[in-house]
Design brief:
about 60% helix, globular, alpha+beta
Length: about 170
């Protein structure tokens, strides 16, 4: 199990390394690839126990990768809309904000899913996930919201997490 975890983490790290270096026609591409392999192996050795809890190849399942690829354009559109909204607010002569902290409920149970949902919320301008808590068997997030439209938990949950949660649930079943 440990060797499989190290191997799968190294593969993921190497794929990210390939995306990071971007250009594959450089004269020293061989050195880049060898360096990437070495770094990926070290990352796998030292971080696999933090990343892999059960199935070492859980992220490499076709359905997860497909849902993740399909989620990227959706999230990009939501990100542009949120940036536009915050830019309009920041540039308007009267600062049209009603900041506050709201509590929203999530159905997600996976730590990876909760982390991804919190990051989606935080990376979308106008909201910041502040805390994730479990109360009476339910999981809640405390969100700082630039323009609190409602403090009612269910309505705020639908507005803030919107369609992010079903996408994240599909990725991290």
């Amino acid at each position: 199990m440990k060797a499989k975890s190290v191997f799968s983490t190294a593969i993921l790290s190497f794929l990210l390394w390939l995306i990071y270096i971007g250009s594959y026609s450089a004269p020293n591409i061989g050195e880049e690839l060898i360096g990437g392999i070495i770094v990926s192996i070290f990352v796998g050795i030292f971080s696999s126990s933090y990343l892999i809890n059960e199935d070492p190849f859980w992220m490499f399942k076709k359905s997860r990768i497909l849902w993740l690829i399909l989620f990227i354009p959706y999230y990009t559109v939501e990100l542009v809309k949120a940036n536009w909204d915050v830019a309009k607010r920041a540039l308007s002569p009267n600062l049209n904000i009603n900041p506050g902290i709201v509590k929203i409920k999530t159905e997600l149970k996976s730590n990876y899913g909760l982390a991804m949902l919190a990051n989606c919320i935080t990376l979308t301008p106008g909201t910041i996930a502040m805390n994730i808590v479990e109360e009476k068997g339910m999981i809640y997030m405390y969100i700082h919201w630039i323009d609190v439209k409602t403090e009612e938990e269910k309505e705020a949950s639908n507005i803030i997490k919107g369609a992010f949660e079903p996408w994240v649930r599909r990725i991290f079943i």
